[in-house]
Amino acid sequence: MAKFSIGIDYGTESARALLLNLETAEEVASSTMNYPHGVMDEKLPDGTVLPQDWALEHPDDYIEVLKKIIPDVIIKSGINKDDVVGIGIDFTACTMLPIKKRWYTFV
User: Fold this and answer.
1) Residue 42: pLDDT over 70
2) In CATH, what number does 4-91 get?
3) For labelling alongside 36, which of 11, 68, 72, 99 has CA 20 to 30 A away?
4) E strands of the chain, at which residues?
């Protein structure tokens, strides 16, 4: 039975997910979602003005996009979610915090 991996790319304006068949290297499905809060390049939500040439994202957006793009690639592909054996994540530039406990469900 085929096994799959999901690649997640966090960019400046959106996040993308790609489902890959690990046996054939076939791109099976993809999904993209813009960040709900958009890009903060002038000021923070509290009104704090940002320096010139800054581009920030709201931290909650990283989780919100996953709640859509992960189920989306599973649904589009029609695979069994249990056949996903890996996830790779790429970030343009950010600091991620590891968690000890799973507190969410994607599918």
Assistant:
1) yes
2) 3.30.420.40
3) 99
4) 4-10, 14-21, 27-34, 84-91
